[in-house]
CAAX prenyl protease
Amino acid sequence: MEVLRPGLLVSVIYRLCQYPLYSETEPPKALAPHFEPGQLLDSTMLQYGFYAWSWSSAGRLLAKLGYGPEYEILQSIFFVFILYFLSSVPTLPLSVLLFVADLLKGWAVAIVLGSPFLAAFLYIFKWAGVQFVPWLMAFMISFQLIMVVIYPTVIQPLFNKLSPLPESDLRSRIESLATKLKFPLSTCGSKRSSHSNAYFHGKHIVIFDILVQQSKPEGVEAVLAHELGHWFLLYPTKTMAISQVTILALFPAFLRPLLRTFDFPKAMILTPFEAVVSIAMNAVSRHFEWQADQFACELQDRITFHVKNLSTVWVDWLYSTYHHSHPTLTERLKALPSCSREKEGLGV
């Protein structure tokens, strides 16, 4: 009888912990007044085999064009675009012309950037074999650095023209916050979006217009304090550095001579190692989020945003530790009193 592998055992345990929560039909009490039923699209797609159908459809389409199953890279590209196209249909907004324009721009960007990226990504796996890690790491780092420059300067202006915030209490709060944190603010503007969030890039702060509409100035300030907390504490740089170190740490596991030396089949050593790395990376990410939350004490305003983004509300702590890079909303709400006490000490 085959020995139960450690990685499989861990997977069974955390899934058994999470499984009873799938039967919950009501949101947690803390979220009940704010909850709007939704989150049905992904479940429906899984239930009726939408992903498998999309893959088969991509194969049939290629067959009509004269390409066989050996063109798996091309089929993967078609598969991604089929998913992207069909998943966009249920999100039709009231402004059809605006939607169509953005959709066509999105397809153009996906074709121009996504196709070469996906093709190169899959080709590296095929070309480098078991030695793909350093090549793939170099490719990903290069692509990330290029996107850091291209996105705010080329891609974002295609979809949204930033509107400078007028002189107001909100603008004064943002400028005061930037000065307090010594953030080199150059431009502060809003853009059209259905998401309630904000972010920064370079010397620019961008606020989604729906956030301004749904929140009071102090609520918007709290969201920005969280985001700028990541900048102030250098978390994006630290996260990228840790990710590259993680890939380097995984590299020896792909060396067959090393595995044979210790008499390990490749799968048996990779599965538990990847599980440990995943938990460690999630722990680091969750720590960063906790610190940013404490930096801003924004949780009360995040209730609505979290529900509108259709995030999971019922989750077992062990399952969440393995799968979630961010603390769950329930965990953040429980930490709200201590976060409020931290606020005065942090000076936010």
